[in-house]
Every structure is written in C-alpha cells, then in structure tokens.
Fold:
Amino acid sequence: MEFSSKLLENAVNEMSQLPGIGKRTALRLVLHMLRQPKEHTNALTEALSTMRHQVKFCKSCNNISDVELCEICSNPNRNEEIICVVEDIRDVMAIENTSSFKGLYHVLGGKISPMDGIGPHDLNIETLVNKVKEGKVKELIFALSSTMEGDTTNFYIYRQIQDYNVFTSTIARGISVGDELEYADEITLGRSIVNRIPFENSLKI
Amino acid sequence: MEFSSKLLENAVNEMSQLPGIGKRTALRLVLHMLRQPKEHTNALTEALSTMRHQVKFCKSCNNISDVELCEICSNPNRNEEIICVVEDIRDVMAIENTSSFKGLYHVLGGKISPMDGIGPHDLNIETLVNKVKEGKVKELIFALSSTMEGDTTNFYIYRQIQDYNVFTSTIARGISVGDELEYADEITLGRSIVNRIPFENSLKI
Structure:
C-alpha cells in the first residue's frame, strides 16, 4: 500500500498493530477520523493515554480498577470465603452480568501455555496460593476456558493448594441452555451425562 | 456492559465511536493495549494526534499530503491534461496501484447524497469546474461508485462543464476479470453487451 503522506502512513501502521485490525481497516478508521472534527481524535487519544498510564490493578484480585482495592473486593456484602478464579477481566464482567455469584474473584491474567511461552510465574498464581495459605478461603471455583491450557492451569493451581483445607470446584460443562442435543459435540454430551445433577437442582435457576 | 474502572470505560467508549468497532471489540483492543508496554500506546496516540492535526490536503487535487502540492500533482512526468475524478483518497491509492493511469486526480471528498444531507457544495466540485474553465484540461474521467449517488454526482459535474471544450469519460463497467458469466447480475451483463469493445482492445492489457 502506497501512501501520499508519511503522517497518514504512520497512523495506519500504528493502528494496524492492534489485534484483528489489518491495514485496510486501519486506513478506513484513520480516514474516518480525518472526516470528523479534531476534537473526536483528541478525545480518543486522551482517553487511551490516560487509561494506559493511570489505570490500576486491584492489589487483591488483580482486576482493573481506578483505586487500590477494586469495588468488588471492597464490597462488604460479598462473601470473601469463595473465590472464583478467571483468566481475564472480561470473564469477571461476564460472570458479574449473570448476577449469580456473590463471592470474590482472582484474575490470573492468562493461562499456562508453553507454546506461547507463558509459564506459571507469568501469571498471578502465587498471590492466589498465598490467599489460600492464609486460611480465609473456603472454596475456589475454577472458571477457566475448557481447553488444554485451561485444564493445565487448573491442575497446576490444584496441586499447589491440595494440602490446604480448601474445597475446589469447577464451573459445570454441559449442553448450553436452549441447545438441541443432536447438535452437541460428543465430549460435551458425554460429560453432561457423567456429571448429571439431581433434577431438583435444575429447577433452581 | 459494567466496567470496574471509569478510565477503562472511557477508553472503550471512545474506541467504539469508530465505524465498525463495537463495545466488545473496543474492550478487546483496549485490554490488548494494557498488556503491551506503555510505549505502544504512546506511539499510537502520538501518531493519530500528529496525523489529525498536521496532515494537509493538496491545494490542487485535495488528496492527503504532507506538503502543499501532493507528489502526484507536482510530478512533471504526469499528464496534467487528463483528470480522474474520485470520491476518496482510497480510490487514488487503488488506481495508483494498478499503474495504468498517468494523469492527475481530483478528490471530491464524497458523493452527492441528499439522504445523508450531502449536497454539491459539501464536495470539492467548484475547484474542479474552475480547472476545466481555465481550459488546461482535455479529458475528465469519472471514476465514482456505480450507485445512484455516484451517477448523480457524475451527472451534476457533467452539467456544470458541458459547455466547455472537455471530453468526459467514465470507467468501464462490465464483468470482472476472472468472473463466470452465469453469476453476473443482469444490469452489469446487459451493460457489458451494450458497451462492448473491439476485441483487439481487450488484448492490450
């Protein structure tokens, strides 16, 4: 792609560094900015820059926060004996949207993935293990992706804490609500039979 | 979507103002920035801001440029008697990539579209008409989209200049190279028969 302006080329190149944004999309976005008043671009760059430099991570759960201890961790109405372990703050947002969990979270910041060079020490696993060692936690809920990497991470953490008095659970895997059985994959269907639940429990939600 | 941080929310909101970027995509992009070193965000915001404030539009053709007269307009090897009229600088880049045109361009900055409130006076039509009036232009090639708005714009400009001694042409519409006839739409196929060309001409490219 040949550009008639170095400034434009630079902006497109930087924009196309973002995941899922190719050169063409980047050009479309940048030309859109040029058609809009300058204030729009100012607002965008200002918001991104402030966010990147000033955002904090909760010192307890590692969730993104504007203060030292995030709103969830500092909420006295939440049960601090149950911790839900997730990969990412998007998972926190997704679970919060369901309004079905009133405990705290612990954001790992990823999952163990040797292929991508991510080992246990790149994640916030130590702080989680320390919380368990302190003895205040009664239950850990693993809510990681159901992939090889997710399972590896679950198991790694499980090994670190199995000598302590803590109950560990994992979110249920099974047929999605509203799905037809015939379209479900074999592994999910198989697991949903092995891990069947008392019928009365299914009436609760 | 509930955010645990106002700064994050702000950044996501600004990002999702861009066309084709929804809230979820914006969140994904912003979280990606958070995982990258701060320098990456600095480079992006700096490039966008400099581009938005310092980029110039060529005073002759309205193409984006870093200098007053763009590289194409100031190139003595280009034929300034032929002007290709396009909507957008992306069209200039697309035509330049084909290396099949050695004249100059004129970027209108859009097309007449009453539905979107864009009239002739919102576009760079007057400067184009003035160029024709000065008598240096021998041919105008209309290379606008083949839509109602494109055709309206072509016709509007044509009416403004028809009394001057200038030849007007429009880019060929027809079956794309490599396309099967049976999949072509009727209008395109019909036009390609009406506007058929001598066979020898098709051997040239």
